[in-house]
Design brief:
about 100 residues; alpha+beta; Glutaredoxin; four-stranded mixed sheet; 2 helices; 4 strands; Thioredoxin-like_sf; Ferredoxin
């Protein structure tokens, strides 16, 4: 068994929808952002084993700071507003290896 992770980066987007009116990532564009990231990673040919995986997640318990995503294995948490922020996370962090400090939470 290899010590190397199956994915270089594994990205989880919180897509939680709360019914009781509390803040939630689903109400802040999380579904569209996750779909955009998945499409962009495929366009860049960065998807698959040894590369990047974009996943949907249930509640990551940081809804008040959301919408949120987390990048593993680093455990870097981000918030974002739009697809420009998602592209910056992809270009800077996932491709370039540099944390996007302005979006980090």
């Amino acid at each position: 068994m290899s010590d190397k992770p199956y994915y270089q980066h594994h990205v989880f987007f919180c897509l939680n929808q709360r019914e009781e009116g509390r803040p939630c990532c689903a109400d802040k564009g999380a579904h569209a952002a996750q779909e955009h990231a998945k499409k962009r990673i495929k366009e860049l040919h960065l998807n698959g084993q040894g590369k990047v995986r974009i996943n949907k997640a249930g509640c990551l318990d940081r809804c008040e700071e959301g919408p949120v995503l987390v990048v593993y294995p680093e455990g870097t948490w981000y918030t974002y507003v739009d697809t420009h922020d998602i592209d910056e996370i992809i270009d800077e962090h996932l491709v370039g290896g540099k944390v996007v400090e302005r979006l980090k939470i």
